Amino acid sequence: MTRVVFLLVPGVHLLDLSGPAQVFSSAADLGLGVELSYVAEAATVPSAQGLVVHADPALPELSTEDLIIVPGWRAAKLATSGPLTEQALDWLRAHHHRGGTVASVCAGADALGRAGLLDGRRCTTHHDLQDELESRYPNACVVRDVLYTVDDRVVTSAGIASGIDLALHLVTLRHGPSAAARIARTMVVYARRNGDEHQASVLLKHRSHVNETVHRIQDVIETRMTDRLSLAELARLSGCSERTVTRLFSRATGMTPLRYQQALRLERAEHLIGHGATVESAARMVGFEDARMLRRLRAR
What we know:
This is HTH-type transcriptional regulator CdhR. By secondary structure, the chain is an alpha/beta fold.
């Protein structure tokens, strides 16, 4: 039996906690010998979303097969949030020194840093907190804009939903990719995203504007990403002239509709290549006639 112990901090983000907890709970349902428990320095822990979580105030004795996960908490600044006593930090430190694995989601990386577990190791956190994490722990190697990192039994992930990717990766390491895929299907998520995939996708990065016409054009491009879409067709579908489409789209996103479609294709192709596809097959699957254009975009 492997114990997965969540160390909870006041202001814990519910999805930072519930995402990995769902993964390991599903592993238990599959009979993989997983037992979940929740500990904190008080019997009740207020979450960032208002729900109060109950936890065991006693820190358990663990074996090297057990796993500690520190979910993130609401933090405008790491330096003024996430209270943990030296006893809890000693517990984290001792578990790793004995050969155990420790993991964090989002701001939880700061707890590992306070325990001295980030020094000399690769780590990551939510993109809003990366600068502060780097300044607080100058001996750590903060890897920017990735989903998760693994370095000598210290596993850190970016914000919120990336904790699911981290947990699926840990299931894969211990129980194999088939088990992780079964859990992912149960949860209706990607089978497993690679740790070095970007935190902010093209979809999110260029959707922060408020122009409804451009949003409708983006909807068409995203739905028909593999099609050859002409500017004339986008103009017809949006009810604007070609010149207006180009002007509005460039002002809202910083690129032309064609460049946006290429960026979507490139991101999807990188995902496919990261999961074992060849450059040639990935190019065909995302709508390129051959791999030459994909190679040029990747080089650019």
